[in-house]
Amino acid sequence: MSPHTPPLRGSSPPEGADPAWGGPAPDPMSTTHSALDHVGHWPVNIGTAASLSGISPKMLRHYEALGLLGAVARTDSNYRQYSLADVHTLRFIRRSRDMGFGLDAITELVSLWHNRRRSSASVKRIAQKHRDELGLRIEALQAMQRTLDELLCHCPGNDRPDCPILDDLGSL
Description:
The protein has seven helices and three strands. The chain is mainly α. The protein folds into two domains: 8-101, Multidrug-efflux Transporter Regulator, Chain: A, Domain 2 (Orthogonal Bundle), CATH 1.10.1660.10; 125-157 and 164-170, no CATH class.
């Protein structure tokens, strides 16, 4: 430990972490890890972890409170200190959120990602369910779009107060 690195309390890798690396393998579909490679020292503070993961510090604290990160190490002054494995997990969460997964599914996916004895069938089941839900949402959005297209065709868009769009929205 360098003289500038505060001592850590409770710093242990997450369950199922690869001891040689300190965390789960990075997602091969993720973007380049060059930003992570250029970090001068680990662990990092919350601002750096947030910047490296693309998650705001507020959401980072929220994910920690939900247990998605496990126990984050703290300095003697109680400042959070995030390991490389924590930042990889945060990037995994961010990518999962970008794909539209809900927090319950992300919780399961993070757990499976850290579990080297997982079954890919479990992961596929979660992804399939999400894809099916997305399909239903897309169909609903397309129906709304068709309705709006129809209403727009009937709206003259002139200076008169008559508006079929408002009439339709106000109908029971």
